[in-house]
């Protein structure tokens, strides 16, 4: 079963995480905060202003702007760059969420958890109503034409998408490769009962180098906005080793039972599940193409999913689902 590395951990977390808005794959140097100001000729000018000391870049759409009809508008270009560039997205600590359903789900989750959802701007198709549940949320609402909506959403029929939200990264996102002050692993997650760690590709997620940006367009659409709902920590093997040592975790890795391997994998049996039921655990799944890295194979106890026939691997999402279900404490 060759899959994308994912790790699972158990621990207890502190109440708050500081927002780190950087991508683990692409080191982004801290820059001065930049605000966009509309000049006399109608263009937006950058203004350096690092008053908040965040080191993040900000693009502020003037409050008097209520509609955008041109795809050449600077704000539209800004949004398009947020969609296409991970480094740009992380330097602004913002992501574009396309579609009423994920926007509403993110907002409802934040409300239920009493956490503030920051929607910097809600782009609505002309004549479309504000999505139910968001009509009381105070944010900058801008009406856009069908051509603008089509360009930003990436779909051919603009009528199928009525809303796009420009959202700030959640405070539950932390990048350890950038924030050197968050070295205390006990503050990374609110709970470490089960942490999913992705390497090279429920209480939280740990991203190792080479992982997909959790705030890119496809990830947000596939996860239905889960990136805004789960604590996510991005770091290196050094940080993961620190987490393991702090909570004395068992390192497990999904791997097919193939003859000739140096280490014989354990079978994901009910007996095995019972043996680790009360042990803080990390589950690592390797990428579908390359499988587990050598480091994962050396540091982890290999576990295979019993299969009939001669098939040797499973799709990573299928394999991950089986592992996550079986390793739940109740199982």
From TrEMBL:
Superkingdom per UniProt: Eukaryota
Keyword Transmembrane appears in the UniProt entry: no
Record keyword Transferase present: yes
Record domain tRNA/rRNA methyltransferase SpoU type: where: 202-325
Gene3D superfamilies: 3.30.1330.30, 3.40.1280.10
GO BP field: methylation; RNA processing
Alphabetical UniProt keywords: Methyltransferase, Transferase
InterPro entries: Alpha/beta_knot_MTases (IPR029028), Ribosomal_eL30-like_sf (IPR029064), rRNA_Methyltransferase (IPR051259), SpoU_MeTrfase (IPR001537), tRNA_m1G_MTases_N (IPR029026)
Gene Ontology terms for molecular function: RNA binding; RNA methyltransferase activity
Protein name: tRNA/rRNA methyltransferase SpoU type domain-containing protein
Source organism of the structure: Gossypium schwendimanii (Cotton)
Taxonomic placement: Eukaryota, Viridiplantae, Streptophyta, Embryophyta, Tracheophyta
